[in-house]
Amino acid sequence: MNKIYAVSAAPHVKQKISVSSVMWQVVMALVPALAVAVYFFGIQALMLSLYGVTAAVVTEGLIQKFRGVAVTVKDGSAVLTGLLVSFNINVAAPWWIPVVGAIFAIAIGKQVFGGLGFNVFNPALLARAFLVASWPTLMTSGWIPTNMNSLSGITNFADLSTKAQDLITSATPLGVAKTIRNIDFLGASDTSIVMNKLAEIATLKNLFWGNVGGVIGEVSVAALLIGAAFLAYKHIIEWRIPVSYISTVFVLTYIFGGVDGLFSASLLLPVFHVFAGGLMLGAFFMATDMVTSPVTKKGRIIFGIGCGLITVVIRLVGGYPEGVSYSILLMNIFVPLIDRFSIPKAFGEVKK
Amino acid sequence: MGLKTFPGGIHPHHSKKYSENASIEEMTLPKKVVIPLSQHIGAPAKPIVKVGDEVLVGQKIAEAGGFVSISMHSSISGKVSKIGKFHHPAGTMADAIEITGDGEDNWIELVDDSVEDLSIEELKKRISEAGVCGMGGAGFPTHVKLSPPAENPIDTVILNGVECEPYLTADYRIMLENAEEIIAGLKLLMSAVNASKGIIGVEANKPKAINHLKELTKNEPNIKVVGLKVKYPQGAEKQLIYAATKCKVPNKGGLPMAVGVVVQNVATAIAVYEAARYKKPLVERVITISGKIVKDPKNIKARVGTFYQDLLEYCGGTSSEIAKVISGGPMMGFAVPTLETPMTKTSSGVLLFDSKEAHKDDENTCLRCGRCVDVCPMNLVPSLIVNDVKYDDFDGALKYGALDCVKCGSCAYVCPSHIKLIQWIDIAKIKIAEKNRK
Predict the structure, then answer these.
(1) Which domains does chain B have, with CATH numbers?
(2) In this predicted complex, what is the ipTM?
């Protein structure tokens, strides 16, 4: 009768969830996108991903050993970072690009701040910014076309001028969209034809399935949506950030996206902007990174709107065709501030 | 239209299958009981017996220690054998009176009055004399709840039959087996505060109880039985009031009476009825003994002060080694170090877990995933409170709502980093209280 039992604080039952189950489930959610990349780009897409993952895991383990803290490479978070770094790389890049990126992501993006949970920036995006700044040509050119010799996803272009055809076949969808914002480049009539072709159903279909040029992880909207649906079902990502991010891009590109002034775009142009580039990958898998996004519900919406706003500003008036990664990195800076100013009212909050 | 509920919350496995079909059994008399002097919120009771005194069942052995306090009565007949420190269900050591039984069951004299003829004053006096407190867990003295200040008129009495804690089935069984007394108790509670409406809130996973209560109240236009969505913590007072009436109890220490509501547990309603009709003190209650390893999980009507050891023996013991003993439900209950702990007026259950169920996860760093924010029924930011507590910033913790936490444990339940959020928030509450006292 004198047996003593261990005590602990309530609650005494817990949901079956852990840091590693969260991380591995996100990795699993990225597998469809990787599979599509292999289908369109070949086995090199998988190889580059493996280089990135290996480099990330080894870097994390070595630094943790050096710091004298527990080695937690099995929790999947380094695997995830390595995979996301590789997903942001052109399949034509040499093997050392994902390796250098993953080392940078883990060492500078994550461990310098104290490891998982303490980093300010999304490590994979920080690495991407570093790679773009260091090897701009390797990162933003030499795109490999998928099976139809058109990078942009536009398939019927025989009736266009040679200059327009060159553009369509050699630039990514957002690259085309960016170039023709300078109307003088193709002339008014070709510009509006290409504009319409970007937003026609055939092009959008190619974007949806992934039959376009781009970095490894971003090409297939369908595959990314499958992964995102899985994470939403598992309550690992929550709707607020992706929905507010994507809707903001949709609305702003509808208003400002046309080349003939406000509201000059068709309703399919915002769909193009949502499908093209890294928005799907960014909105569902990068902006939702738990560590670097706000915890409050209102904060997540502010964060999503901010990402959408910056993305559209960069795409339409900035120097780069694509703005997803910089928008998320910029909004990462504001996360503590957003949290501070979006504390919810407690249930039954008394008005002062 | 969906079932009524509140924002936030979680869906733990309800694990009620072990005991939900076990009819209430009256337990054999224990040889010894220990009656803690503090089984309630408020001042502890003061002993009025000394070692060696002979006592009857229902005899008062400790006087209320103030207005917000209750009196204690012996739950068996016998001799006062010790007054001192004993294990308490909250996991602490606390003052209590030990009574060694004489093997008989000699009661004080009870009455059998018509409850309709009682004046409100007499009714409240009988409730207070019987030492009735809220039997759902917190143990707030019932006569205090029934004496709101004149500026807070009460129009609704809500009976809490939600029982949202996993495993527990004691309230469910009394709603099936003692529904007439519950309804009679509700009517007394309504007349005590002059309320025109009575609501019995029951979670929708107990359709038998809902139908039974509805059947019995079909000719009572003022009493409504409300089925509520199955979600934890549906039975938390503020969440129950919101689900049933759409009224939000003000935060920062606001009480249900601010929105014209008094909430009582269904078991309390029975105690009120018995106190009013028979002048019977609260000396016994129904308690669930459950857990996967309990050989024969039961709902037992047992005397206050019965040791967990005796309750467990009555259920045939366990099939494998016990690793954890929990007073109450698994979400908000207390782990106790020994089976030599007595049940009290607020004990709704004793749970026995084996080493597999008694998880011992290490805390990881916060991922900032925000799942705690999503489930908090009080709309707080639990992770930021805990962050501030870890850096001794109690002003920050206060700002993020530490004092409004109802300790339901939903945040800790969903945390992938296994952070013991409730424990950290408790530290914040204590430190903030210390600071306010200075």
Answers:
(1) 16-108+281-357 (3.10.20.600), 115-278 (3.40.50.11540), 371-437 (no CATH)
(2) 0.91
